[in-house]
Amino acid sequence: DATIRQIAAGEVVERPASVVKELVENSLDADASRVSVAVENGGKDGIRVRDDGKGMTESNLERAVEKHTTSKIRDISDLDAGVGTLGFRGEALHTVGAVSRLTVRSKPRNGGAGGASGTAGAGAELTVEGGDSGELRPAGCPAGTTVEVDDLFFNTPARKKFLKTDPTEFDHVNTVVTQYALANPDVAISLEHNGREVFATEGNGDLPSAVLSVYGREVAEAMVHVDFEATGPGPVQSVSGVVSHPETTRAGREYLSTFVNDRYVTAATLREGVLDAYGGQLAPDRYPFAVLFVEVEPDAVDVNVHPRKMEVRFDDESSAKRAVTDAVEEALLDHGL
Ligand code: ADP
Ligand code: MG
């Protein structure tokens, strides 16, 4: 039933940034080496994610937007390793299609989409409007996939009313794409807003290069390397990445990015662990830049049950925090900071 479908979709697709997150994740899952994100007016009026990933055949394409009945979350194990995904495995495209005008255009890497339209060598395109799928059509396109989401929440006005201003919605989009760009320096990831490039990473596998592309030269030059193997007891095995000099800070904590087992997470424990390492060196209400990859034993970490959140909790919070502090302290000391 369409109404229930829309309500359910509204629960998981909160705002343009949630759509962007799912689409970028799909592109990375498809083994893309380039992912380009372009949004209009904070994403409210248009979202386009284009990749050069493995693409989809015509039948894949049709299946991709269908409802998958086996994907309801029942317990935490159903979340996959999915820290921070919608949590509904196989549901993202379907869910987005229920509350927008969705177009997916794709061509497999190895030749055309083939199949029903008899257009081997070309790609194919499928549009879904408010949950209604159109016909598969041939479409000229490069290998890979382009997903366009227009008029998000056009059929769910209550949800649409909750959206904030364009700049605020864009901030959320920017935060999401930034996290993926920092977590995947081997992929060239770019972001455009209203036709203007916001950033574009090289995709050369180098974290400092990704930091430079995303945050600019001043910040990149103020970064020091963290490379720490934990020896003590506790869930953390290693901490690596970069953190900024104590005087290179911002007012917002969104520049403090932490990844647990390569997933972006927010965790007060990790954030406080970083801040503790700076001791009294930070000005009040200022946060350093950090991009930290924390490896932990999978059993020692809990994902918040809400699929929209990216929060994690550790069995042993104080050990986790201490490991991060030790790692960052060591890095700062190494640089006489
Ligand atoms: P999930 O990612 O959990 O499988 P989605 O609804 O996000 O569910 O995507 C459904 C399916 O569509 C994916 O499993 C994949 O086969 C295909 N797909 C989606 N996006 C892409 C993409 N960018 N490139 C290739 N295949 C894709
Ligand atoms: Mg997905």
From TrEMBL:
Domain DNA mismatch repair protein S5: where?
211-333
| Top-level division of the source organism's lineage | Archaea
Q: Which family does it belong to?
A: Belongs to the DNA mismatch repair MutL/HexB family.
Q: What does this protein do?
A: This protein is involved in the repair of mismatches in DNA. It is required for dam-dependent methyl-directed DNA mismatch repair. May act as a 'molecular matchmaker', a protein that promotes the formation of a stable complex between two or more DNA-binding proteins in an ATP-dependent manner without itself being part of a final effector complex.
Q: What is this protein called?
A: DNA mismatch repair protein MutL
| Protein's organism | Haloprofundus marisrubri
Parent-record interval covered: 24 to 360 of 760
